């Protein structure tokens, strides 16, 4: 197998780099300064206990790639970037070992949606026959091109994986996930096959609704009640919509094996993916698929999620105006939310 990481930012570069270090065949699809740095110097992966630079094959688009029927696509963009990536790769031809074109990527290759939120699976399924949902529990940060920070000791990350949509060959899917689990285990990752992986993705979504506070405030001290309020609103909407998600004890049992530790030379607390978007000056942010997802679910059932909706709008504005984490103080945020 070759793992082709579509949108290799923090998650894709860290996962791909650590897999390549242990001998897996990996291809990173990256962009901008990060792509140029990795192509020139390799990707540096810094962990609490190790630091390594790995030279991983890296390209910037499908015109530079010859896909084969051995490839596994792993989507690691932000959710708001997912559709563009999926559409870009869906019709890329897939070859056999003799160079004969067998069909397109969408027809033949599995795609694993390893990103936050619960929308990317439907996006991928519009194009691809074989979609596997992945709940990612793998704290990583990228603030500089060519370098990613992994904040865990072994196991480095935990991934719940399951087929999305009805499978025509469940046995083949089970075999594929098992094979990936074995190969990723060599790089100190845990892959857990799940028949109901969306329960885990909704649980991760609940955990992610607080990301926006760090993105806006930088230091979230004094905003604990706002996080709880956003999470409580999320739980209420899930209950009203009949959405099942892994409970607190269940998720602690599954994810409690991860030990998050400081990385030498870095602050003890590093930011979420939303925080990273503002730090890097991106004009878009994934919050519309996190807090905004809660607002969407609420509207579908005739309810409202005013706190999560307001947080979504503030995050959009921050990205649009080029604001950095800490541009708002806690009291300013309270005023914007009407919670003074």
From TrEMBL:
Residue span(s) of domain Ketopantoate reductase N-terminal = 4-152
One Pfam family name is: ApbA_C
Top-level division of the source organism's lineage? Bacteria
Q: Which GO terms describe its molecular function?
A: 2-dehydropantoate 2-reductase activity; NADP binding
Q: Which InterPro entries match?
A: 6-PGluconate_DH-like_C_sf, 6PGD_dom2, Ketopantoate_reductase, KPA_reductase, KPR_N, NAD(P)-bd_dom_sf
| Ketopantoate reductase C-terminal domain ranges (all copies) | 196-317
One cellular-component annotation, GO: cytoplasm
Tell me the keywords, alphabetical order: NADP, Oxidoreductase
User: Does the keyword section mention Manganese?
Assistant: no
Q: Which family does it belong to?
A: Belongs to the ketopantoate reductase family.
Protein name according to UniProt: 2-dehydropantoate 2-reductase
